[in-house]
Design goal:
Elements lengths: L3 H17 L5 E12 L2 E2 L9 E4 L2 E11 L4 E10 L2 E6 L2 E7 L1 E12 L6 E15 L4 H5 L2 E7 L2 E12 L4 E10 L3 E7 L2 E2 L3 E3 L4 E10 L1
Antiparallel strand pairs: 1-4, 1-16, 2-3, 3-6, 4-5, 5-8, 6-7, 8-9, 9-11, 10-13, 11-12, 12-16, 13-14, 13-15
Length: 213
């Protein structure tokens, strides 16, 4: 997938939100620690009898939210997680190291602040995951010459709440579902194997803190 359209979209989105925020005094900035439930196994790599297996893992995320009113806001976030990869088959498992995944996400939110310090919200949006990977020594020794990953645009559904500790600081609980997957292309000594899909569809549970202006 060509990354330039998404990067341009995010830049324009930030500019538009910044201009619109002149009519709204409230910006919120936060950080979250996440559990990313993304464990999955690919289909067979050609006729090799092997598959790629990706674990779940911890992640971190930083977000900025602008509230245009008491009920409508837009959240932009960037996160990272590094699940461990394995090549499995015939009872064997070869360590593939870690795949660094960096999701860029934009979500439109509806807030319903009617419970005192509690501020529950729901959201829908889009995300694109940038994968970064370096071939592990164990896979090289097993005859793998190259392994590349490609991310894709996906939808995001969000459910969460803020709890206002004082006038500025708040605590955040957040749950998101991403309809995301990764494409993987492997080359061995015998040539390129067919592209396979890692259907991650991660569920991300996060706890965080934030500060509002």
């Amino acid at each position: 997938m060509n990354r330039r359209p998404l990067i341009c979209f995010l830049v324009l989105f930030v500019v538009a939100v910044g201009n619109a925020s002149a009519q709204s005094p409230e910006w919120r900035y936060g950080g979250r620690l996440s559990w990313v439930d993304s464990g999955t196994t690919s289909e067979e790599l050609g006729d090799s009898g092997t598959m790629l297996d990706l674990d779940s893992g911890l992640g971190i995320e930083f977000d900025a939210t602008v509230l245009f009113s008491d009920i409508f806001g837009v959240e932009l976030s960037v996160g990272t997680t590094a699940p461990r990869l394995r090549l499995i088959g015939d009872g064997d498992s070869i360590d593939g190291g870690r795949v660094w995944l960096v999701p860029l996400t934009a979500i439109a939110q509806y807030h319903h602040p009617v419970y005192g310090p509690w501020d529950p919200y729901i959201g829908l949006g889009i995300s694109w995951t940038a994968p970064f990977y370096s071939l592990s020594t164990d896979l090289k020794d097993a005859g793998v010459e190259r392994l590349e990953f490609e991310g894709e645009l996906s939808g995001v559904a969000q459910l969460g709440t803020n709890y206002q500790v004082d006038n500025r600081w708040y605590v955040n609980i957040d749950l998101r579902y991403f309809s995301a997957s990764l494409e993987a292309q492997m080359r061995t000594e015998d040539g390129d194997l067919p592209t396979v899909t890692l259907d991650t569809k991660p569920v991300v549970f996060s706890l965080g803190i934030g500060y509002k202006f």
